[in-house]
Amino acid sequence: MEVVSVEAGRVTQIFVSDEVRSERDMYLPQLIDLVRQRYGFAFVPNAQDVKTGGARFQNGRLQCESGDITIENLDIYNDGIVAACRHTELAEAVLNDVIPWAMEAFGLRPPKTIIPRTYASFVIVDFKAPVSALISQFATLKALLAGAYESTYRKRYEFELSKTSFSVDPQTVPQHTNTEFLFDRRATASYDLNRYFCVAPLKTQDHLDLLAKVEGVFVSSGRAT
């Protein structure tokens, strides 16, 4: 497997809003300006956006001794904070800075209910074999698809699996729990490359480690290209 690009890593920290709500009034323009000043965001929300749907800050940075961390997005809601960077490790470092600072700056209270953080990793990789290698009867299936298409349009094409995902029955997990693992062929790349946009509810490195193991399953199926 070859990693073409690590696109983004997102980390979410949810709170019970009643537990962390500040006991003092907050002047929204000042709140927005304090966040902008600390993290140098190029794009900030207006006060009305914050009132109605949360605050999204874009294109900022966290200054660290080891070098600045670029923050793609920082979303602040009354019941949670979401940080998006290139890598989940970086996004987690941002949250580790934002949360204690915000508690002090805005008078937020320490939460009594500790909710584990959730992760989302977005990467592009080239596999040695296509995802369709997982389907033992794929050759039969794609022949059926090609035949049906040809009977309608009088043109015959070689069909390949373009997208597949795996997830848990949403009725069995808490609401808004993300369990989806996605494999989506890159439409701009030749299918011969076996290039996929992959999404997982994991830390970035754990996601890459998983994809390397998944590739082994593809190759061992006997459909390697």
Descriptive notes:
- The protein contains 6 helices and 8 strands.
- With 225 residues, the chain is of the alpha+beta class.
- Strands 2-3-4-1-5-8-7-6 form an 8-stranded antiparallel sheet.
- The longest helix has 19 residues, at 88-106.
Task: List descriptors.
single chain, 225 residues, alpha+beta, 2 domains, eight-stranded antiparallel β-sheet, 6 helices, 8 strands, 27% strand
What is the radius of gyration? 22 Å
How much of the sequence lies in strands comes to 25-35%
What is the SS-derived class?
Answer: alpha+beta
Number of helices: 6
Number of domains: 2
Helical amount:
25-40%
First and last CA, distance: 13 Å
Instruction: Name the overall outline.
Output: elongated
Largest sheet: 8 strands, antiparallel
SSE order, one letter for each helix or strand: EHHHEEEHEHEEEH
The order of strands across the largest sheet is 2-3-4-1-5-8-7-6
Mean pLDDT score: 91
Low-pLDDT runs of 5+ residues are none
Number of strands: 8
